[in-house]
């Protein structure tokens, strides 16, 4: 079943490119327009959506955070992300024009299911992004977009995460199409860039795995890790931190790079490992420069810096002890490649410590209790 791989997690990380590619297949009709898998909402109602609330847990919630940056940019409607278990207990503002997007790999997460039911009771529409055909969450939703990552066996979610980002992006482009907030050519341009992502992920798997493995060996005795990123790099940092704590049982904290000076920098002293996701350097934009100065600051306080950066970024190399390279890609799509070395890193650390990477202690693949 593992197809020659030492673990399901290893196999599934290597299926990231396929998961992204397959989730893009069959999304277009003969006219080239984007279509959803199941829609039980009238087009006019769909067009009138004026707010999105993503409800999800864990890794799926980080996919939702990534999608917020893209959907707000493309569709110009507010997107909120809420942990499903928090959502229900705070009297959220829901109207028939609110689209609640439930993201779930298993389709059986009880927290997410209860949030979805609450939203429908309040008269909102629910769209599911799900990896499991016929599971409860899509069955109870008004519309469905399936991720085609294939069955995910390892407890820690990997290929489902990249597929969730792609599906959420397709939802954003679909809304842009029906609301007319983007030109058809712009939409097609982004779809073409998405179609180029599987090869870029493959490049990371083929060329960076050795560097990642060496870094894991060097970091084996580290007690804690900080992960930081800005813009779409922020949810990637959160996800990298979650993977490492889940399977390598190492204390990690992910946070927005801009928060550094508001608190977390106090944790940095000699040898503290800090993982930083660096945005593209193209145009030497402020986003890039701000993240680089964050690395410089932690480096000045003795941090051991592991940096994920675009191939050839000279600034990233200047303050990095280790660099995991990614091929050039548009900023909004970079999470699809940036998360890959972090998935590998967590797996390597857990393997080196002798832990079962597929079945981490205390965790279940789908959490069917609240
Ligand atoms: C992380 C992980 C969990 C799940 C979360 C939601 O590796 O596996 O954080 O992402 O429990 O599960 P689903 O997506 O099945 O609703």
How would you characterize the overall build of this protein?
There is one protein chain. With 370 residues, the chain is of the alpha/beta class. 45% of the residues lie in helices and 16% in strands. It has 14 helices and eleven strands. The protein has helices at residues 8-13, 16-24, 43-47, 58-75, 84-87, 110-121, 136-139, 159-179, 184-195, 197-218, 233-248, 286-300, 314-318, 335-352, and strands spanning 38-39, 51-56, 79-83, 98-104, 125-130, 143-146, 224-229, 251-256, 273-277, 304-310, 322-326. The strands form two sheets. The chain has a six-stranded mixed sheet with strand order 1-6-5-4-2-3, with helices on both faces. A five-stranded parallel sheet has the order 8-7-9-10-11. Helix 4 (58-75) links the parallel strand 2 and strand 3. 52% of the residues are buried. The chain binds fructose -6-phosphate (F6R).
Taking the sheet with the most strands, its summary is: 6 strands, mixed
Instruction: Give me the strand/helix succession.
Output: HHEHEHEHEHEHEHHHEHEEHEHEH
Strand residue content: 15-25%
Rg over alpha carbons: 20 Å
Task: State the strand order across the main sheet.
Answer: 1-6-5-4-2-3
Give me the number of helical elements.
14
Low-confidence stretches: none
């Amino acid at each position: 079943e593992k197809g020659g791989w030492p673990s399901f997690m290893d196999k599934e990380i290597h299926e990231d490119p396929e998961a992204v590619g397959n989730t893009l297949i069959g999304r277009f009709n003969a006219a080239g327009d984007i279509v959803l898998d199941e829609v039980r909402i009238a087009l006019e109602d769909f067009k009138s959506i004026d707010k999105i609330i993503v409800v999800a847990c864990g890794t799926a919630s980080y996919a939702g955070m990534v999608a917020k940056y893209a959907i707000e940019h493309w569709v110009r409607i507010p997107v909120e992300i809420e942990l499903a278990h928090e959502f229900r207990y705070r009297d959220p503002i829901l109207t028939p024009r609110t689209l609640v997007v439930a993201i779930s790999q298993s389709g059986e997460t009880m927290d997410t299911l209860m949030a979805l039911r609450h939203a429908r009771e309040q008269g909102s529409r629910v769209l599911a992004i799900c990896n499991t055909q016929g599971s409860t969450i899509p069955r109870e939703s008004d519309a469905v977009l399936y991720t085609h990552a294939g069955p995910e066996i390892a407890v820690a979610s990997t290929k489902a995460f990249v597929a969730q980002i792609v599906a959420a992006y397709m939802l954003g482009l679909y809304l842009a199409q029906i609301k007319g907030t983007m030109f058809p050519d712009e939409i097609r341009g982004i779809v073409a860039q998405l179609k180029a992502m599987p090869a870029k992920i493959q490049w990371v798997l083929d060329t960076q795995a050795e560097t990642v493995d060496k870094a894991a060996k060097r970091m084996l005795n580290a007690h804690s890790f900080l992960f930081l990123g800005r813009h779409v790099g922020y949810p990637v940092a959160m996800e990298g931190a979650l993977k490492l704590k889940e399977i390598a049982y190492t204390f990690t904290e992910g946070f927005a790079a801009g928060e550094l000076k508001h608190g977390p920098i106090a944790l940095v002293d000699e040898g503290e490992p800090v993982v930083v996701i660096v945005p593209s350097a193209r145009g030497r934009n402020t986003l890039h420069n701000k993240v680089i100065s964050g690395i410089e600051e932690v480096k000045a306080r003795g941090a051991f810096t592991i940096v994920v950066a675009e191939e050839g970024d000279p600034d990233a190399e200047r303050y990095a002890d280790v660099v995991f390279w990614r091929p050039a890609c548009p900023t909004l799509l970079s999470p699809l490649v940036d998360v890959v070395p972090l998935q590998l890193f967590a797996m390597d650390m857990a393997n080196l410590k002798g832990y079962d990477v597929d079945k981490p202690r205390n965790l279940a693949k789908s959490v069917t209790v609240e």
